[in-house]
Amino acid sequence: xxxxxxxxxxxxxxxxxxxxxxxxxxWGVFGKLMRVVLGFAFFLLAWDVxxxxxxxxxxxxxxxxxxxxxxxxxxxxxxxxxxxxxxxxVLGFILGVFAGTLxxxxxxxxxxxxRGLLPMILITQALPVFAIAPILVLWLGFGLASKIVxxxxxxxxxxxxxxxxxxxxxDPGYSDLAKLYRVGRWKELIYFRFPAALSALASxxxxxxxxxxxxxxxxxxxGAKGGLAFIxxxxxxxxxxxxxxxxxxxxALMVLTLRYTxxxxxxxxxxxxxxx
Length: 276
Description:
CATH class of the largest domain: Mainly Alpha
Low-confidence stretches: 1-21
Order of helices and strands: HHHHHHHHHHHH
Oligomer: single chain
Largest sheet: none
Helix content: over 70%
CATH superfamily of the largest domain: MetI-like
Number of domains: 2
């Protein structure tokens, strides 16, 4: 009975679309990994050739070997501070996704809440993050709290906007189906709107994974006792450019790792959206 009433054959199309796609094979994952490794190797080679050909001073642009020497000399020191930034990033990411999801749900469930929340959300996005960060450090101190809140402020809008748009733009037939079965707004959300908007939520989470480290780094840049931005500031003051680049490379690896992990998790969440 339910299948007959499903609008526009949504259920049949979803099943056939999911069946028509294939999950990535181990060889496919290995191929992607090899492309990343080869791309990184080519980047290092081009970097080394550029430094040697133009005879750039190490204090302006150190070569890859200089940066590798910095890793060898102070590797544990760098990893300790990278762990601080990673902790801030992951906690900010989790809380930001949670907050963004709750706000989107509240905006769809309660139109009055949407009219009240939307201006405040837009204000948080209109203000420059470097203007907000010093206030957060003043209120919350130099520890983890100010960096986590900064990361949440940077990423929650991506989750809220995409997920709310997914809830709002779901097939109008779902509302008709909810009325047909006389279910309330909460049940319409749980049984119809939420599953239909999962793809939009996954897109917002992927975007948030890229921007989460930015919030943590901005917070550290304004004031921190540790972290990769703290190392970059200290190294810049001492003209230790090799340490700055070592911290930047660790930050890039952190972003790629988080992005890949989130990509795998969201693929499990919406398997019918597996990338080709």
